[in-house]
Amino acid sequence: MNKCYLAGGCFWCIADYLGSFFGVESVVAGYSGGDEKDISYNKVKSQTTGHRETIEVSYTDDISLDVIVDIFLSYVDPFDKDGQYIDKGHSYTLALYYQNEKEKKLFTKKIKELEEKASQTPFISVEPFKFFIRAEEEHQEYSKKNPEAFYKELIASNRVCHLKKYNS
């Protein structure tokens, strides 16, 4: 099983979307990027830990990392330097965490392609993967456990409109 680590703002929103594609076996909400290992949702939201809300995507050979990154980039606002939609602060900024030089090269290439296509600079950090901390259970499969609240979050965050804009 292959794994990749992506920070796309609200992990509830991005986990639900990426988890819907063939070849994606599971998506786990969690935290990456900081150095502290004793971390919680409230600590990360305090914007003092250096962590970002991150998803761990487990996928088969039926889907490539290249395609996963394209899907990810279609569902975020890569030009928002302050976070994503209604969620602002470092913990909601975008990052692609690479585990080897091949991934680093792919991530860098994808960002450059996006920059050339849009004629503006995307705010996506490419960083070495340190570790991943699974978020508390209430954050796992949030859309299934709290469908009404999840839908309201999508509407309030404008992700539904963003998805339509980039995929029409």
Structure description:
There is one protein chain. This protein has a single domain (2-167), classed as Peptide Methionine Sulfoxide Reductase, Chain A (2-Layer Sandwich). The strands form two sheets. The chain has a six-stranded mixed β-sheet with strand order 7-6-1-3-2-8, with helices on one face. The longest helix is centred in the middle third of the chain and has 18 residues, at 101-118. It is 39% helix and 24% strand. The chain has helices at 11-18, 41-45, 65-74, 101-118, 142-145, 147-157, 159-167, and strands at 2-8, 24-32, 52-59, 83-84, 87-88, 94-98, 124-128, 133-134. Residues 162-168 have low confidence and may be disordered.
